[in-house]
Each structure stands twice: as C-alpha cells, then as structure tokens.
Amino acid sequence: MALLEFTNKGIYCPPADVYIDPWRPVRKALITHGHADHSRWGHQHYLCTHSAAPVIRYRLGNVNLSTVKFGEQTTINGVKFSFHPAGHIVGSAQIRVEHKGEVWVASGDYKVAPDGLSEPFEPVRCHTFITESTFGLPVYRWKPQDTVFAEINDWWRQNQEQGKVSVLAAYALGKAQRLLHGIDAEIGPIFTHGAIEKTTQVMRKQGLKLPETRRIIQQHKSKDFEGSLVLATPSATGSNWMRRFKSASVGIASGWMALRGTRRRRAADRGFVLSDHADWNELNEAIEATGAERVAVTHGYTNLFARWLREECGLDAWEAETEYEGESLDKDDGEDTENEKDA
Amino acid sequence: MRTFANLYTRLDQTTKTNAKVAELARFFDQANDEDRLWTVAILSHRRPKRTVNTTLLRHWAAELAGIPLWLFEESYHVVGDLSEAIALTLPKARSSNEAGLTYWIEYIKALDKLEEGEKKQRVTDAWMQMDYTERLVFNKLIMGGFRIGISQKLMVRALAQSTAIDENTLAHRIMGDWTPDKTTFEDLILTKDPLEDVSKPYPFYLAYALEESPDDLGLPEDWIAERKWDGIRGQLIVRKGELFVWSRGEELVTDKFPEYHPLADLLPNGTVIDGEILPYKDGQPLTFNDLQTRIGRKNVTKKILEKAPVVLVAYDLLEWEGQDIRERPMEERRALLEQLLEQTETHGVLMLSERVNFSTWQDLEPERQNARQYHSEGLMLKHKGSPYRSGRKKGDWWKWKVDPLTIDAVMIYAQRGHGRRANLYTDFTFAVWDDKQLVPFTKAYSGLTDKEFREITSWVRRNTIDRFGPVRSVEPAHVFEIAFEGIRKSSRHKSGVALRFPRISRWRKDKPLKEANTLEDLHQLLKLYEEGG
To answer: Which candidate in B74, B82, B132 is best for mutational testing of the A interface (most A CBs within 10 A)?
Structure first.
C-alpha cells in the first residue's frame, strides 16, 4: 500500500486515514492553502498553517479548523505530518508525510522565487514528490518580479498621462496582494473591487503591510478614479462593472500572458507575465532539490511533464488525476468554468 | 533590430488603429532610409525569400534549449506560432547586437547559399545575441507570415503622416515590381514618378459587401450594375509596346496568360484596363476551379490552353493615352472603355463587362438570386460619378453577392486552432446522414464568436471519444449550419463532393441531431448547382 493514494475524494493517506486537499467531503482534511480548489467546503475537520487559517475561515465560515506552525510535527496514527512553505501565497504549504522511514511530500501549488510576501519556498527531501505542472512546458519562464513590477508601474504612469484609469485584473486571493505589495503606491490612488478588498482586509489583519486601498462603491463618480490603479477580479473586467470608468486601459497579471495568443484572445490592452506558480525552470529545480526518485504529476500539462521527467530526468514519474485547477483566466480563484489549459 | 522590435511590441500592445498608425509613423520619422524601405517592403508583402526551412529551425531551437524535439513540438502546438515558440524556448542571450533591421535582413538573405552546418551556426549565433522580441521578429523575418495588425493600407497611412505625401500617391508608388535591393527610399517613395516604371500597376479599387438591401443607396439611375465574375481580378497594362498583367495580389502574372500577349500590339500604348481574368469557353464562363487548376501548373501547356482558355472581362479604364484618368467619373471612363473595345478587334480575348439593366432596385433582386446560372457570384453596383479609388473603400462601389448555399451538418471531429485561438477548438469536421451513418463531407472553422468557441471547446473536452494527435473525435451531438459558395464532384472525398468556402454560419442549438441534412440532400445541391456542370 502506498503512503499516499489518489482516490476519487482526494489525496488519501491510508495509515492515518486523512486526506490532503480533498475535493469531496471527508472526515479530516489537511489543507495546503486557501484557494477554492484546494480548500473546499464540507469536511468535518481541517488542519492548516497559522497564516493560511484567516483566509480559510473567512471563506468557509465557522468550520472546525486547527492550525500548526511551519515545521511543526503532528502525529496521526503513527504517521508524522509537517507543513513547509510552498511560496505560492501567504500561508501556503507543502505537506510532508513520513511513515516507517518513507517520506512523501504533497506540494499543492508552489513557486520557488520569493515574492516578498509569502513565506519563501523550502525544498523538502523526500522519496516521492507530488508536483503540480500548471506551467510545465519550456515556453513558460518568468522574468524577475521586479522587472514585471517596473512594467506595471510604467503602464500605470503612462495611462495617467493619457487620462486613463489603469484596471488590472488579478485573483482576489494571493495575486492581488502580491501586486499591492510590489507596485509603486506613490504613483497614485489605488482602488479595489469588493471581493479583493475583503480578502485584503483579512490579510492586513494578520499583519501584512499593504498600501492603502479604497473599495469601489456605487457612489464613486468616474472622476474619482482619475489617475488611479484599480485592482479587479478577472470576471469583473469583462462585465458591466467596467462602465464606471470613462476611459480605461485593462491589464491582466497572469502566467498565461506569456503567450501572445492568450493575451490577444482576452482582449486586454496589456498582459503582465506574473504567476504564483512555478515556471519550467523552477519546477525542475524544485523536483531535483527534493532528491525524490518518484514524482506524481498533478494539474497542468501532466502527461507531457511526466514524460519529460521519465525520459529525460530518469525519474519514476506518472500522471495523477486530481480536481485541482492551477491558474485559470476564466474564474476568479477556483470556483467555476473551464481552465485555459488543455494538455 | 532593437528599434524595429520595439515597434513590434508597441504595435502588439494596442488594438486601436490610430495608435498603431501613429507608432508606425513615429518609426518612419526616426529610422534610417534603408530600414524605412525594408519596413515598407515587409508590410507590403515583399519579404525576403525563405532561406531556411522550418523543420531545421525547430531542430536547432530544441537542441539549443536542451529539450527533446517532441517536447518542443508539443510546446509549439500550445503556443500556436512557431516564431514565438522558438523565442520563448531559447536560453538567455549571451550578448546583444545593436545592428538594425536591414543588417539582419541581409544576414538572413546571405544564408541562402550556405551549407546546412553553416546555416545552423549563423542562425544560432544570431539567436544568442537577441532578446525575446528581437528573436520573435527575426524568426518571423525568416519564416514570413509577418502579421502585426498593420495592413498595407495602414502602412501607407503612416507613411503619409511621416512624409507628408498624399496617401493615394504613395499607394501608387509602392505598387509593382520593386524590391529594396533595386531601389532606394528616396527613389521609390520620395521622388519617383510612378509612370516612369512602365510595368507599374495602379492600386486596385475594392468594394465592400452590401449587407442590406440597396434601397439606401439612393436613386437607381445614378448607378450601374454588372455581374460579379468569379475569376481573378487583374490589371492589364500596355505601355511602350510592352504588356503586363497584374493580379490583385500584386503578382506579375503576364507569363501565365499567353492569351493576352497579342494585346501588346492591338491596344494603344498608355492603356490600363481593370478586369477579371476569367476562364471562358464556347460562349460561357468556366468555373473558378478550372482557373485554379491552371494557375497551379508550372508551365502553361497547349492542353491547358485548350481546356481552360481565359478572357479578360473589362470593368474599367484607368489609363488612357498615357493619362491617369482615375479621377474622372465612372461613367466617363466606361464610355471610353466601350469605345476602345468597339474599335479594337481582340478576337474575343477582351470582353466588355456588360451592364445589367434595371430601373428599380427590385428589378435587380432576381438578377442577384440567379447569379449562379451565369457562374457569377452576384452583382456589382457602382456609382456613375465615382472616381477609381485605391484599396477597399466604402460608398461608391458595392458587391452584392448571391446568398450562400447552406446545409445543416453534425460536428464529428474537432481540432485546436492556431495563433490567437491556439488553446480553443476551432477547426471542425462536419458530417451528414447517410441512412444511420454519419459521412464527413467538409471542414470549416470560421464563423463562431469567441464566446461560442469557448463554449464548444469546453464541451469538446468533456465529450471526446478518441484522440488522433491534435484531432479529437467527439460525440455526435451538435448541429451547425454550414454556408458555402459552390459545390462540385470530388473523387477524393468519401462524400463525393467538395465545397467552396465552407464556413459555419450558425450553431443550430434548436435542431435535433436527427434533423441534420442527408447525403442525398447534398447530392441534390450538387445536381442543381454543380460548378462547371
């Protein structure tokens, strides 16, 4: 029996009788982070890191939730579990599972380059590593985030000069706060879509230092937005919600913006290549750093990335079926509709 | 290349025409003459010849990136554009290079005579001195297909802004048989009198399609109607005893049509006629298919000349006695044309495009609907007072096409699109019923909105039966109306027919699967409308 199994409810640990990021209701769930495809409603008991908890509580309401520190060990039925930074969003973790000398790591979603806000990714040695593959093709390689933020700042300034509002689409949880943290808030006022403001408030309360933002309300007039940057959810930028701005330039911050075709299809004025998922190089570095001989590849370009690991890296890699979604452009953070990718 | 690559980035970052034109005009202001001339050449489809084939480029890129070829190919499929896939995959540059556009074009041209190994060395050297956008542009220069949302028309507009020369004059100057090797920016754009070049054609005046009824066009007596012939639009030039024939695609096709060669002696010097190159035999037009087969051949053999001889159906007179008469009213030009044709015995090679008589717009409706009987595509409506304009312009000329033929068909295969639609299923194969079997008969891709493509893509992913490379066979469930311009027999297709210009006209969500059309319906259409029948 494997230490972790992919079942129709989630990633299951038989000796401990617990699940990691399950997608059907279970008795006990260990949660890597608060995005909707990893942290679902309906489990009897939840376990996550201290810093992931506020958002999960805010989204799921009054659930039975326990928290642990990063690195702290919890033993369930003789199986040792510990949470280690995944660098994806604040509080996000890889979950290390150890039983009778065998070690597995379920990494959820992760990125390797530090974003200055999330606890930086730490490689964890293991025998079997479960990796995502959202951007598991060699065409996806990120620029340093400082370069991207400089591009965003320039775009914002340029829009200001042309009398346009800068509307930037991003996930309400994670990407929006990373943007707030990284952009130059001196350039002008920052407004937020309601969904983003709420998550941001939750994260401010847990001690994150983020620039001042103003939530957009009905009473705002178009001139209130002059010279401002507006953080909006991806779905809002394609809706009537946009009518409140007289003249706007729409940008999207997402890893998918690396492809010109996707950028053009979204009819955005500007695409900024910024992702909270590992790029091609990071995926490969991360896997190598674990020292794992076996790799289960989940959500993303699963078949291609697994084949690469098998044929070119000499690893025992296979595709694992899950219901995780990675980074999507058609949803706000995990709730609905199809994914951009298809592999 | 940096400047040109920056231009590319800025053009790519806006969808607004005026902003694109302004960016290009600014580039023209700043670039040197060589780079300006090459930019005009590239944006008017005068690319340097391809000196490296794409298979080699794929191999080299994969090797340089340290990935197996299969992974590169899969990545390319996801990206949808080879130039971009290569630019995204290559490792970081080792150095940079400040050379301009012309330098790199010469560099690419010089690859032609080299051995494969040397080509590889030169191309990879170039790549390793370039950033992402420079590589993208460089690859596009090698491979062609340089689409950046700047049509020739917009390029001319930008050039006009930069040089303060009138757009029509510029449009004319950049026509014809030139390449940047044989001329200079100064000569071609700034000073040249277009008529010095005896082969130089005028820009074609192209009509927009009339979507509504012609009632809004005003008084019928101000207009003339002609048949819209289904051949190749061409321009026939006789100057200084020489004959030149240009196709609408600005290709010099004189050699392809020896039938016209005697006209060099029959027509007076300084004559330019706009017309349709039409295959025509025994007093009636043949099909476009006949013409296409003929053009595809390398040599024009005697057999071909017998099988599909061409005539020129003359629409308009652009130059007369060496004078550019495009500004004179249509009616006047047409009178001169009629007079010319009356006086010249061309043994049927040059025919007048006859007027279709009418006194009310209603008179024309049946003429349009009957267009297929004449092997024509519908009618052309032209204002009697109209000048001969450059390019596609609204207002004075309209094409009023016959309604397309349609058939309701079932989608059975789906394939991902390219470029902008690389991750969407946009290319479909359709079938009709033959008893209880579905027989595929056509592919079609355009015609749905992006929203509909997203909807069908999501459905395809959930209802795939089988995969063959990029193609998926899907559950037969959706009926689409397919519109097309013509139908003919084909032994190459299982269904026995081939369609011309098939496209999706709408998604028949209202139609149950069983009510899609049958193979017999298709053969009925073949009987009624067969091209060349």
So the answer is: B74
